[in-house]
Design goal:
With 464 residues, this protein is α/β, with parallel strands linked by helices. It has 13 helices and 19 strands. Strands 1, 2, 3, 4, 5, 16, 17, 18 and 19 form a nine-stranded mixed sheet that branches. An eight-stranded parallel sheet has the order 6-9-10-11-12-13-14-15.
Length: 464
């Protein structure tokens, strides 16, 4: 049964172009585009996008649904989290499967397949977290790349949990340089940070704001520099996740000026929030505990500049929500026990549209950093991240004039607070299609758990 959808009258925005065009969708894919009103197409469903933007569905390549952390679990399931993503105009997530120490990569990956299967409202893929680099797991990396898991995350932080030492990182990078995988790095000097944490707690410095003070910007920059040098030794590409400090941006810029295949991602929390939030009284600062931590406001200018100069290529969310009541509260009296992570999968596209209005980035750059480049970076482009014939019909009708106030009262993430509570923004998702099927229709959720398909990814299309 062929269904055809026609989207008329909108301004189609991709990373490359802005054009008033009609978009024809057939069998879940973009069939054709034509200048507005020039084709007499017939369709089963016509969507009038007059006065609106027609944009590719967002691609969020950094989420943590159901992640076990700090004795609890991220509060969004694959069902609630992907539904919230759709409400925010994101139609693809790449989540992180976790290898448990002593276990195989396969066991970790299979556990994540099981969590997500039949539960997602939008399409999804996986990266693999390596927390135990051994001869066996190095061999498994090759098999995973063949299977469509083409990126591997390592941690220079969290000793005893996810931490890998420089030798393990070097070995994983050597493997990636031969099998085409992308190494993703949490770049913070966790060994040094743990000493500073211990010393702060001994001094009685237990409030959330000390989380930001011990995880120093210089220790993010040092780890970023070290990761770059290890990647350079091995010939591996490197993607540094959640860059928050201007000193770390400088390390990435320097490496890129040398022509190295080094890339950086930042997140909305670093662009819009700061240590002022971590310092909020009555333990409210715990809501903003994530790692890398929020930085003083003056770092924001460097992050925006990095996004404009392409020293930072991607904005993802690192969506890892924990409720304030009962989860963040685990760290009352000891900031080191606050689960690290913030909600945001629903807010990213709107916040970045606000950044367009605020003059930080252009409309096309908005689509580039939120849709096209994340898809290219992780082997999904052509299928995801653009509106072009042959691409999946992941399309968002976006009202650039609608005004909203961000709030936990109105968001759809399964978490009891909003990191942007009370923030007014202009621009809002109106309708969302995933592979041609309506998920959000005129601000109503009409999708379903299980519509989302697993995406086997190719290797990075951003290299070279």
């Amino acid at each position: 049964m062929t269904t055809r959808t026609l989207i008329t009258g909108g301004l189609v925005i991709t990373a490359a172009d802005e054009t008033h065009a009609d978009v024809l969708i057939e069998d879940g894919r973009i069939a054709a585009l034509a200048a507005a009103g020039t084709q007499e197409w017939t369709a089963d469903r016509v969507i009038d996008a007059s006065g609106k933007y027609v944009i590719p569905g967002g691609v969020d390549v950094h989420t943590h649904m159901e992640l076990p952390f700090g004795g609890t679990f991220a509060s969004d399931t694959f069902e609630t989290g992907t539904k919230a993503a759709a409400w925010g105009g994101t139609t693809t997530i790449v989540d992180f499967a976790v290898q448990t120490k002593g276990q195989s990569l396969r066991a970790g990956l299979d556990a994540w397949y099981a969590k997500a299967d039949g539960n997602c409202a939008i399409d999804y893929g996986f990266h693999m977290i390596l927390s135990d680099v051994t001869e066996r797991t190095l061999k498994e990396m090759d098999l995973l790349v063949e299977e469509g898991i083409s990126s591997f995350k390592l941690f220079m932080a969290y000793p005893g949990v996810f931490y890998s030492d420089d030798g393990q990182i070097l070995r994983a990078m050597q493997r990636a340089s031969s099998n085409g995988g992308m190494i993703m790095m949490h770049a913070e000097n966790g060994i040094a940070i743990d000493v500073l944490v211990e010393q702060a707690l001994q001094r009685g410095e237990t409030d959330p704001r000390y989380h930001g003070e011990v995880r120093k910007a210089l220790l993010e920059a040092e780890a970023t520099h070290r990761a770059i040098k290890l990647a350079q030794v091995t010939g591996s590409p490197l993607y540094v996740v959640h860059v928050s400090a201007q000193e770390a941006v400088a390390e990435l810029a320097r490496a890129r000026d040398e022509g190295l295949p080094v890339f950086g991602e930042t997140c909305p929390q670093y662009l819009f929030l700061s240590t002022d939030n971590l310092a909020e009284p009555d333990f409210e600062g715990a809501k903003y505990v994530c790692s890398t931590p929020l930085r003083p406001k003056e770092h924001q200018a460097a992050l925006w500049r990095g996004l404009r100069t392409n020293d930072l290529q991607v904005v993802s969310t690192d969506h890892c929500p924990f409720c304030f009541v009962g989860q963040k509260e685990l760290g009352r009296g000891d900031f080191s026990k606050i689960p690290n992570g913030m909600p945001g999968v629903e807010n990213r596209m709107d916040l970045l549209h606000q950044a367009v209005l605020d003059g930080h980035i252009s409309r096309r750059r908005w689509i580039e950093i939120a849709c096209a480049t994340p898809a290219r970076m992780f082997g999904l482009y052509g299928k995801k991240g653009t509106i072009a014939p042959g691409a999946d019909a992941d399309v968002v009708i976006y009202d650039p004039h609608a005004e909203q106030v961000m709030s936990a009262d109105t968001h759809h993430m399964n978490v009891d607070y909003s990191a942007y509570e009370g923030k007014p923004v202009t621009g809002r998702v109106e309708t969302v299609l995933s592979r041609g099927e309506l998920v959000i229709e005129a601000r109503e959720f009409v999708g379903r758990a299980g519509h989302g398909a697993y995406l086997a990814r190719g290797t990075s299309q951003y290299l070279g």
